[in-house]
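Entry 12.
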Amino acid sequence: MIVIDTNILVRLLTDDDVTQVIHAEYLFQNEQIYIPKTVLLELEWVLSKTYKFDRQKIELKFRNLLTFLNVTVENVLQIERALNWYNVGLGFADALHLAASFGSDAFTTFDKALIAKANKLSNWNPKIINPAG
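Predicted 3D structure (tokens):
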């Protein structure tokens, strides 16, 4: 199994460099691939900020990655949960932070907007706390 970096996925999903796309496609056709969730975090940022992909396109691309039989994604349940929350309006980073804390006693943040959004999620279990009150 090989671990891939964000730039491999960027080439694969944007098709913006013919030579590198060929190499990225070869890897996905011939190797067992492991994708750390930090790579997906960075990938969402690159696709949205640099390539101006909208969230629906990003979600679709991520969900397609999860269907490859030779691809293992770090904590796929967290990624799927984060994608579901991303789909209903949370930023991907916030959604991933919340998904990673699922099952804990509490999640704490000063971000009032995140608190409000998290409290509206139907499948959110820890208490969310603003330490400033």
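Annotation: The helical segments are 6-14, 18-30, 37-50, 55-65, 76-87, 92-100, 112-120. The longest helix spans residues 37-50.
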